[in-house]
Specification:
mainly alpha; three-stranded antiparallel sheet; 3 strands; elongated
Length: 252
Amino acid sequence: MATLTSHIAHIISSFYHTLLELHAIPDFCISRKKNKKTGKVYLYKQESTRNGRKQTKIKAAEEADYLSLYEKRQKLKARLRELKAQYKTLSFKDRGAAALIAHCKSIGVHVFGSSVLPSISLSMFTMASIARFTRSEMIEVLDSDYMLLAESKGISGPALIFRHALRNALIPIITVLAPLIVDLMTGSLVVEKIFAIPGVGSLLVTAIQSNDYNVVIGLSFIYSAMYIGIMLVVDLLYGIIDPRIRLAKGDD
């Protein structure tokens, strides 16, 4: 059973990686046409566009590159057909668990392995801003009178820092953190361009350039809903962190 599971996982993993390689190559066909006057054979590239099929003559210097790409694409298509045939020969009972494991492994390795540098690039500015703001707030809180009172009662160490100092310094920190979280969730156009990530930022810019109003309106609505949701969570956290901010019942 373990051998069969490993075999199914190998088929699905190979299919996934072959499909990624196939999508990385532009979809086009090559046709040959002979000039009746000169007798020379010219290569033409056919691509699918919104207005139909587009045919372009390939330059002589680029013929070898296009032929190589076309042959590679045909080999990948043949490999996909072969993997599909192998997968269809298996019974339905043998596919489920192994298919899920292979799919999770393929996606996990690809997603988490390629998201390390973009995550660091996006988070460094937010981490530096929050660290600087937390430091200034903690310095102000540690010099307050109630901190001196807590020290005089014998409270020290982590209890003094986390329970008294940090909790009172979190109110302005959370206020600044809310819009920064929204910025991280919506992504950065510069990071997406550098690391070639098809993210939300590049999608919005592309939609604006192509006058795709439905996508622009939809993304604007998502941004607004995320910002309103984060600010609502911040308002709720105010009352949890500082009991003085909670609405008193019956105090009219």
